[in-house]
Design a protein that fits this description.
Elements lengths: L1 E9 L11 E10 L3 H19 L9 H5 L12 H16 L4 E8 L10 H16 L3 E6 L4 H11 L4 E3 L6 E3 L10 E2 L6 H21 L6 H4 L4 H11 L16 E3 L2 H4 L7 E2 L2 E2 L1
Parallel strand pairs: 1-4, 3-8, 4-7
Antiparallel strand pairs: 1-2, 2-3, 5-6, 9-10
Helix pairs in contact: 1-3, 4-5, 6-8
Length: about 280
Amino acid sequence: MSVIAYFDESGDDGTVNYSSETFILSSLYMQDSDWLENYNKLKSFRKSLKERFGIPLKEEFHTAHFFKDKDPYRQYDLSNNDRYTIIMVYANVIASLNAKVVNTVIDKKNITTQDYPVLKNSLTYTIQRIENDSSWKYIIISDKGRISIMKKTARAIRNFNPIISHFDSTYYNSPIKNMIEDILEKDSKESYFIQVCDFISYVVNLYYKYVLKKQEMPKRISSWLKLEDIEKIMEILKNVYNTQASSSNEYGLVIYPKLWQKKGTTLPSFEDGVVQ
């Protein structure tokens, strides 16, 4: 028995000239014995989109574009009600999967240094939760684009994975043991599971910014989706969320930097497993 984990993100991982104040990394993971059944559920959903709305099975479900009614979705002439129906059905299909999800949120407003490693930290925090949640060996598959940094980080935490003590500010080393191979790359348009991660990370991003932080939602979204709708989707998806990933909120969202990090305390840095 082994576990397959898929990763995708919402937002950019920059800390200086960035286009988003948050970076969300979502991972969907499942036992290999559940893979085919989960795949068939997602394929059936995509078939229903084809039959009812004309969206081809091979058309990548790019969540940000779908929510904002951008190409390629404008050609399908979807009404606001159509979009609402599709995302609610999609959320329920995802909630029916025999799988779990870890969501890591990096709030750049809490970062106090320009060299904060957004992607490396979010990846480390996510892998730690998967490691803690499974005694099985697991393999990670991610979308293209950031694979070099991800491979380097994964290799490093096999040797040095600092964990802050619950009792004081010290740390102890808990190397990652169950991850197999380097993180593997796959084009998101060829994976329904990576597209699921894209959907979840985008919804978590909406929830964090507009529900928790109470920022103003852009009109392109608020014209057809309300705050209570975002909360409803989060409640639906809670069925697959690993709510034990964090005790700070009901959805198990892993949110960093923590307050102690904002005040200037940081973990030792690492490079290929060597403490710096």
